[in-house]
Amino acid sequence: MKNTQLASYFLIFSLLGAKQFAQAADPATADQPIVAPAEALSRLKEGNGRFTAGNPQHPHESADDRKRMATDSYENAGAIPLGMTSEQAAKRRAELAKSQHPFAIILSCSDSRVPPEIVFDEGLGDLFIVRVAGNVLNDEGLGSIEYGVEVLGARLIVVLGHQSCGAIDAAMKTVAAKGKAPGHIQSLVTAIKPVVIATPKGDLDTMIKANVKHVVDALRSSTPILKARVDSGEVQVIGGYYTLDTGAVTFLEGK
Ligand SMILES: [Zn+2]
Fold it and tell me: How far is the CA of 114 from the centre of ligand 1 (A)?
């Protein structure tokens, strides 16, 4: 083992503590259930379905009152509540304090109208999330996603764009004007610019979806960690588009 490799393993070991690193190295341990990509995607679709139906269950965080509310309300009549008693919620927090096993990774925009836990109706410990305007991929974001896969065992990565994305709009306008955005906002423009150049006649919606696809492709081909796992089918990277008007996420499935 090279010294640099050794150093990086030591760093991960230090960050995680011995127990979690051992679990990460052996994902088959009983307390780190691996959720397959297809099952993870189903869970996200079900959660978004609850959200758009006005029937969110706020898993893992509910107190008795919330559970009663979920069971008794007109909107939730007949629904099986995912909410917990306050004792169960406390137990969940205690478990999470020891380790986390999120079932999906989301790279989404910072936009205040698209918080992943809310739009997918998920709770504490469910989603490992990277948020940056325009859902662009930078090295720190990529490192975070690799950590989510390698160490935490998540097997589905969703790149989530959304209707009326201001970052994409700003990039289109800045590139069209051959201008420069103020301050560090320009770094977002620089990240999105290749998509704008490659999609010359695209409107904002087309560009938002093209940007999602661009980031999905970048993740799928990213070496040394993600590509091999994607090629083997162990990890799936998929694009999504959130419609502000309806709350629905459409998954841009396929290659
Ligand atoms: Zn946005």
Answer: 8
